Amino acid sequence: MPPRSLEIGPAGMQAARAIETLRAERGLSQRQLADRVTALGRPMSNTMLSRIERAQRRCDIDDLIAIAEALHVPALALLPGCPAA
To answer: Which residues contact residue 19 at a Cβ distance below 8 angstroms, ignoring those fewer than 6 apart?
Structure first.
């Protein structure tokens, strides 16, 4: 079985942009958001968050949920085409 591609698709790209946009709207640095995510029990460095925002690292579902919680938004707010409520 060939290894699965790690290329980030359109949904991942849009989620990365949503994370960056919401973080900036809340006036948080990458380090501050990464610290919030870590405090929620999902260890994350600002480098990891930077790579997620630049779509250089895949954001798994556990990361996505922790980031959403740290941003005080529903996880669906970070997914393209999903209602944010």
So the answer is: 49, 52, 53, 59, 67, 71, 78
By CB atoms closer than 10 A (0-12, 13-18, 19+), residue 64 is buried
Q: What is the DSSP letter of 57?
A: S
Q: Tens digits of per-residue pLDDT, 45-82?
A: 999 999 999 999 999 999 999 999 999 999 999 997 76
CA distance 69 to 39: 11
Distance CA 15, CA 78 (A): 5
Q: Hey, what are 79's tokens?
A: 């997914």
User: Which pTM does this prediction carry?
Assistant: 0.87
Q: What sign has the CA pseudo-torsion 40, 11, 82, 77?
A: positive
pLDDT at 69: 98
Dist CA 22 CA 39 (whole Å): 19
